[in-house]
Design brief:
The complex is a heterodimer of chains A (about 425) and B (about 180).
Chain A (H helix, E strand, L loop, with lengths): L4 E3 L1 H19 L3 H19 L7 E6 L3 E3 L3 E9 L6 E6 L5 E3 L5 E5 L6 E10 L3 E5 L2 E6 L5 E8 L2 E6 L21 E17 L11 H7 L3 E9 L2 E7 L16 H18 L3 E7 L5 E5 L2 H12 L23 E6 L4 H12 L3 E6 L12 H23 L4 E3 L7 H11 L8
Parallel strand pairs in A: 3-12, 15-16, 15-18, 18-19, 19-20
Antiparallel strand pairs in A: 1-11, 2-4, 4-8, 5-7, 5-10, 6-8, 9-12, 10-11, 13-14, 16-17
Chain B lengths: L2 H13 L3 H23 L6 H16 L5 H16 L6 H20 L10 H31 L5 H23 L6
Helix pairs in contact in B: 2-3, 2-4, 2-5, 3-4, 5-6
The chains are: A alpha/beta (about 425), B mainly alpha (about 180).
C-alpha cells in the first residue's frame, strides 16, 4: 500500500534517457543525439511540470445495499482531492459469488480534467444469496503524462446483502387452520366471506343481497346463501441450515440443499405474506435467525434479509425439544430440510406432538453427484441415504407429509389433505 | 519466491492480457526490430550476439513494460546508435527517433495498469495528441539542427560550457522533481 505519489518508470525512462542523450549530444558534439532525445525530453518536461501536490483519498460505496440473486448494482469508487489525477484504475480481487464487469475485475477510466472528485462506476452482479463483501481490491491513480503514480491503495470492501431469488411459488390450497381475523383462507365458522357454505332460512341481520330467490320462491320461505368466514393463517418456516449437501453454483449452476431451502422458504414467505397471512422464520443451525410472525411487505423484506444471513453449520447441543418456537396454535409449520440430521427429525416430532401441522419440504438436490467418486465415499454416501430413508420413515409415522420442492404448487396437495384431516378428531399430547 | 513461481505468475499475467495490451506490447517489440534494421540501414554492422541480446531485451520489455527493462533497452539502442552510426542528420535519423518514441509511448501505455485493462478512448486520444507534440518537437529539432549545420557555426569553449550548464541545470531540476518524488502531504 503506497499513499504517496512516486515517479513512474515511464517518467524515469524519459528523464534519464533524454538526459543521457543531451549530455552525449553536448560532449560528443553529436546533434543527432539531440534529435533522438528531444521527444523523450518533451515527455519528461510534461511529466515533471504536472507533478501532483495532493494525495487523493479513496472510498467505495454500493449503488444498492441489498439486491436479489442474479441482479446487479454498481460499485462506486470515489476519489476525493483528485485534481491531479488523470487516470484511475481499479483491480478487484476475484470472488466466487459476485462478478464485476469486465470479468477480469480490472477497470480504468480517465478523470475529468482538474475536477476535484472522480468516480469510477463498476457494474457488479451477485450470483448467490447471502451476505458478502464486495470491492476487495486496489486502486491506482496516475498523474498527467503518466508522470507519477499513487498506489496501489487497498480499497475498503463494502457489505452487500443478496436476497434469495424472487419467489417462484404459487399455491391455490388454503391453509388448514386459519386463526386470524381477516384474510383469504376459508375458516370453519360461518361469516362474511366469498366461499359458499350453505343455504339456510333467513334470520334477522342477514343482508338482502344474500337472499336466495329461487329457493325462497320454491319453498315459500325466505332463504339466504351463507358463506364461511375468511381468516388469515400463521405459517412458521423452519430452515434446516445444519448441513449443506451439494456444491452451490449460484444462479449459474447447480443448487445445494441450502440453496433450495433458502430460495423455497423465500418464495413461500413471499406467497403467504402477499396473501395477507402471518409468517415466522427460524433457522435450525448455527445461524441465530429467528423472526416472529407478522405480516406485510416490510415483514417480507425482514424475512428475506434474515434468510440471507443464514450460513451452514450445526450446533452440537441443539435440542429442538427445548426450543421455543413462539407460534400460536393452528400455525402451519413448513420445514425445509434435506432430512439428514437427527435435529430435523426431532423438530418435526416435537412440533407435531404440540399439535401443529407440519409439512416437510425435502431439499436434497435430485441431481446430486459425488465430486470424489472413490468407492469408500460412495459407500459412505449410500449408508447416509439409508439412514435418511429411516429418518423419513419415522417422519411418516408421525403423520407428517414429506414433499420434494418443485416450485409452484408444491404444497397444494398436502395442504388440501391436511385441510380435510383437520376437520377430523385427533389425539394430541398436551 | 522461486524463479519457477515468478515465471508462472508472469505467464498467468500474460495469458490474461487484453487484446489492446497485446497490441501495445507488440508495439514495444516491433520498434526494437525496426531500430536494428535502421541501424543497419544507417551504416552499422551488427553482430549476431548483439541482435540476440537486443531482441531478448525487447521481449522482456514487452512482458514487463512497467519495469526498468524498457529503460535498459532504450539506453542500449542509443548506445548502439552512438557507436555504430556516423551521426548524419538525415532521414534515417528521423526514422530512428520516431521508432524510439513509438517504443517509449507503447511501453508507457502498456504500463498504465494490470495487463487485462483496456484503456479508454479518452486516454488514447490524450496520448495521440502528446505523441504528435513529441513527433513535432523531434521534426523541428531535426530541421533546426540541419539549418544550424548549414550555417557552419563554430562553437568554442564558451558555447560548450553554456550548453553543459543548460543540460546540468535541466538534470538538477529533473532530479529534484523526479528522484525525490512528490512533496509529502
Amino acid at each position: 500500500m503506497n499513499r504517496t505519489w512516486r515517479p513512474t518508470n515511464a517518467l524515469l525512462r524519459a528523464a534519464l534517457a533524454s538526459a543521457a542523450l543531451l549530455v552525449g549530444a553536448v560532449v560528443f558534439s553529436r546533434p543527432d543525439l539531440l534529435v533522438l532525445g528531444v521527444g523523450l525530453l518533451v515527455h519528461a518536461v510534461g511529466g515533471v511540470l504536472h507533478r501532483p501536490t495532493r494525495v487523493p483519498r479513496t472510498r467505495a460505496r454500493l449503488g444498492h445495499a441489498a439486491i436479489r440473486e442474479g441482479e446487479g448494482t454498481h460499485l462506486h469508487v470515489l476519489l476525493d482531492d483528485a485534481a491531479d489525477v488523470e487516470f484511475a484504475a481499479v483491480a478487484l480481487a476475484p470472488r466466487r459469488w459476485w462478478r464485476p464487469r469486465p470479468a477480469t475485475g480490472v477497470f480504468g477510466a480517465a478523470a475529468v480534467p482538474r475536477a476535484d472528485r472522480h468516480e469510477l462506476s463498476i457494474p457488479v452482479a451477485s450470483l448467490r444469496w447471502g451476505r458478502q463483501v464486495v470491492g476487495e481490491g486496489v486502486v491506482g491513480v496516475t498523474s498527467a503524462w503518466a508522470g507519477y503514480r499513487c498506489g496501489p491503495v487497498d480499497l475498503a470492501p463494502v457489505p452487500l446483502t443478496t436476497l434469495p431469488m424472487p419467489g417462484r411459488y404459487d399455491g391455490a390450497a388454503p391453509t388448514p387452520h386459519p386463526i386470524g381475523l381477516v384474510g383469504t383462507n376459508p375458516a370453519r365458522r360461518p361469516g362474511e366471506g366469498s366461499e359458499f357454505a350453505s343455504i339456510r332460512p333467513f334470520a334477522p341481520g342477514d343482508r338482502l343481497r344474500r337472499v336466495q330467490w329461487r329457493v325462497s320462491l320454491r319453498t315459500g320461505a325466505l332463504h339466504v346463501t351463507s358463506t364461511v368466514a375468511e381468516e388469515d393463517a400463521s405459517v412458521l418456516l423452519l430452515v434446516d441450515s445444519g448441513v449443506e449437501i451439494g456444491v452451490s453454483g449460484g444462479t449459474l449452476g447447480a443448487a445445494s440443499s441450502l440453496d433450495i431451502a433458502v430460495r423455497a422458504a423465500g418464495a413461500v414467505a413471499e406467497h403467504y405474506l402477499r396473501r395477507g397471512d402471518r409468517v415466522a422464520l427460524r433457522a435450525l443451525g448455527v445461524s441465530p435467525v429467528s423472526v416472529p410472525a407478522a405480516s406485510g411487505d416490510r415483514h417480507l423484506r425482514r424475512v428475506l434479509d434474515s434468510l440471507a444471513r443464514i450460513v451452514p453449520g450445526d450446533i452440537r447441543d441443539a435440542d429442538p425439544r427445548r426450543m421455543r418456537f413462539r407460534v400460536p396454535a393452528g400455525t402451519v409449520v413448513v420445514l425445509f430440510s434435506p432430512m439428514l440430521s437427527e435435529v430435523a427429525m426431532l423438530a418435526v416430532t416435537t412440533l407435531a406432538q404440540r399439535g401443529l401441522t407440519v409439512i416437510v419440504v425435502d431439499t436434497l438436490p435430485q441431481d446430486l453427484e459425488l465430486t470424489d467418486p472413490s468407492a469408500a465415499l460412495a459407500l459412505a454416501w449410500r449408508m447416509r441415504l439409508v439412514e435418511r430413508d429411516a429418518l423419513l420413515a419415522r417422519v411418516g409415522k408421525t403423520g407428517t407429509p414429506v414433499v420434494a420442492w418443485r416450485g409452484p404448487g408444491t404444497l397444494d396437495e398436502v395442504l388440501r389433505r391436511l385441510g380435510r384431516r383437520a376437520s377430523l378428531p385427533r389425539l394430541v399430547r398436551r | 519466491m522461486s524463479v519457477t513461481s515468478e515465471l508462472n505468475d508472469l505467464l498467468t499475467m500474460l495469458s490474461r492480457t487484453s487484446l489492446q495490451q497485446r497490441v501495445l506490447r507488440a508495439l514495444v517489440v516491433l520498434p526494437t526490430v525496426g531500430f536494428l534494421l535502421l541501424l543497419t540501414a544507417a551504416g552499422d554492422t551488427l553482430g549476431p550476439l548483439v541482435v540476440v541480446v537486443v531482441l531478448l531485451l525487447g521481449l522482456l520489455a514487452a512482458a514487463l513494460p512497467d519495469s526498468g527493462t524498457p529503460l535498459g533497452l532504450v539506453l542500449l539502442l542509443v548506445l548502439l546508435w552512438v557507436l555504430g552510426t556516423p551521426g548524419h542528420l538525415d532521414g534515417w535519423l528521423l526514422l530512428a527517433a520516431l521508432d524510439l518514441l513509438a517504443l517509449h509511448v507503447a511501453a508507457t501505455l502498456a504500463s498504465y495498469a494490470p495487463p487485462s485493462l483496456v484503456l479508454d478512448r479518452q486516454v488514447l486520444g490524450l496520448w495521440a495528441v502528446r505523441t504528435a507534440v513529441m513527433v513535432t518537437a523531434t521534426v523541428l529539432t531535426l530541421v533546426a539542427a540541419e539549418l544550424l549545420a548549414g550555417l557552419r557555426l563554430h562553437g568554442g569553449a564558451g558555447v560548450f560550457v553554456a550548453a553543459m550548464l543548460v543540460v546540468l541545470g535541466w538534470l538538477g531540476f529533473v532530479t529534484g522533481r523526479v528522484v525525490r518524488g512528490a512533496p509529502p502531504v
